[in-house]
Amino acid sequence: MMKVAVIVGSTREGRSGGTVAAWITRHIAQRDDMEADVVDLVATPLPTVLPELGSPPSDPEALPQLAAVSPRLAAADAFVVVTPEYNRSFPASLKNAIDWHNREWHAKPIGFVSYGGFSAGTRAVEQLRQVFGELHAVTIRDGVGFNGVWGAFGPDGEAADPAADAAAKKMLDQLAWWAEALRTARAARPYAA
Fold first, then answer.
1. With contact defined as beta carbons under 8 Å apart, do 77 and 111 qualify?
2. What is the percent of the chain with per-residue pLDDT over 70, rounded to a whole number?
3. Which of 36, 54, 89, 171 lies 20 to 30 Å from 7, alpha-carbon distance?
4. How far from each other are the two terminal CA atoms of the chain, in whole angstroms?
5. Quick one: pLDDT at residue 127?
């Protein structure tokens, strides 16, 4: 089984991220090759003051906060990032979570489920691709995007457009391929950044 960390990137009150994350997590649960671990940045907040480069956190409260997230990211074989688009980018809470970690992302694949208004979060995803590339991660080309997210899900939490389910399957199939390939490669030879 591949461990997939589903990162819920928004911490905004009234967010749609929980609905979107629950939807993609159900898709993962239907597979026999993956298991999901939902890392919700509301439930597991991280400190917002980063330590000096190469130094441990000086805030004693940072250590238990990191302990609730960092080992889960390290154990993941792959990631699905659930992100909205705020002001043509992704949320600060997500960038903060990314920046607190480094090796946890190395040589691992990342798929995206984005949402927003007209653009379906695509501008946020394009910027995240650049950020994760810097951290030696592999981003999956195909993703899932919900425009007009407020009307994209029924009362049962399922996507109103069946094309979203097909897109999720395609993205997760590609994520599984890359996760297996990269896990095998990391086992054969540790990745050096």
1. no
2. 100
3. 54
4. 26
5. 98
